[in-house]
């Protein structure tokens, strides 16, 4: 078994692209773990746009640690979500799938975002955490 761990973002509430942040990056929270045939993403802050989803036909799971804006805001900005229609499972230990669905579908609805993300991307599947 092999495992790779990548940090795509660690900033707090606000991302920052100033030159002084070049060394450590300015993206908000996003971690990626690759274990053999599985890709696990923890939080989708602004660093999520750098995650190469399903690059190696791996199963992809997104797990949310909590639901602050800086941990959610990057979900819609990952180009791979729009290029590949393999299932992406989304979950959190903090609530059941129904509540998570309500949180994310509200956040990414047409009221707060230019497109209704979950209506457009049917391969995003919200599931129970187990």
Percentage beta strand? 15-25%
- CATH architecture grouping: 4-Layer Sandwich
Radius of gyration: 14 Å
Q: Compute the number of structural domains.
A: 1
What is the highest CATH level, the class? Alpha Beta
Number of helices: 4
What is the assigned CATH homologous superfamily?
A: Ribonuclease Z/Hydroxyacylglutathione hydrolase-like
- Helix content bin: 10-25%
Major sheet: 6 strands, mixed
Order of helices and strands: EEEEHHEHHE
Distance between the termini: 21 Å
**Count of DSSP E strands?**
6
Helix and strand composition category: alpha/beta
- Give the uncertain stretches in residue-range form: none
What is the residue-averaged pLDDT? 89
Overall form: globular
What is the topological layout?
Elements: E1 3-9, E2 30-35, E3 38-42, E4 59-63, H1 69-72, H2 79-83, E5 88-91, H3 97-107, H4 117-120, E6 124-126
